[in-house]
């Protein structure tokens, strides 16, 4: 069944609204579209100007999925796009037409494609679609079992202090999966990936029993891997307020530092779409940076 709708003056056709995309939770495509439409006021500022990579789940989280960078051929003409070089593309393409999610109609268009996960880089494009220098620094904290997000919070607090000493203010969010991320506005003092790597190595050296700064799997059990490589301009990180494709519709959720400091159980920082909408209504955008 197809349903024509008008979103901020743009005409869209929504389909399969009753299709369950999170079977264990009973969360339907209509509820996904509703979530993204309601969270849009706080989500869009973190997507605007950033080339979009989506992870689509047309048959739900238990079915086949695929990453999509290139805007599909059927993308409406009103969706903003930026043609950008992609060195080392696995599909031997020199450039890709990325969508830029600047408005609610574009966000709903992608939600209707079952683009559950929204990933963006740490840089934006200008009005002409040309890439700008990175404006954000990110650290992805990934726990090696049996470590959990609880251990990540301890590392996040160490990293917050290190960044503070460097004159940078960090803001935390969950990954919506097992770990969490810290972001800071980037002043371009040097190449961000090299800078982040140096800080990760410093903390790993100071706390070898808790932290690793290399991806080697055998070194990671029970420790937190500080992934500094997300600052590579070719890489993306899940956007704040994006859904994740897990058994439940969890969300990459902005946190307060008080929540990070008091976390004692992984469930303390486990938020679903309804939880996040309630948080936003009560607290606004915790990820907003001055």
Automatic annotation (TrEMBL):
Residue ranges constituting the DNA ligase D polymerase domain according to the UniProt record: 28-287
Keyword Ligase among record annotations: yes
GO molecular function: ligase activity
Protein's organism: Nonomuraea maheshkhaliensis
Alphabetically ordered keywords of this record: Ligase
The UniProt record lists the keyword Ion transport: no
InterPro entries: LigD_pol_dom, MtLigD_Pol-like, NHEJ_LigD
Identification of the protein by name: Non-homologous end-joining DNA ligase
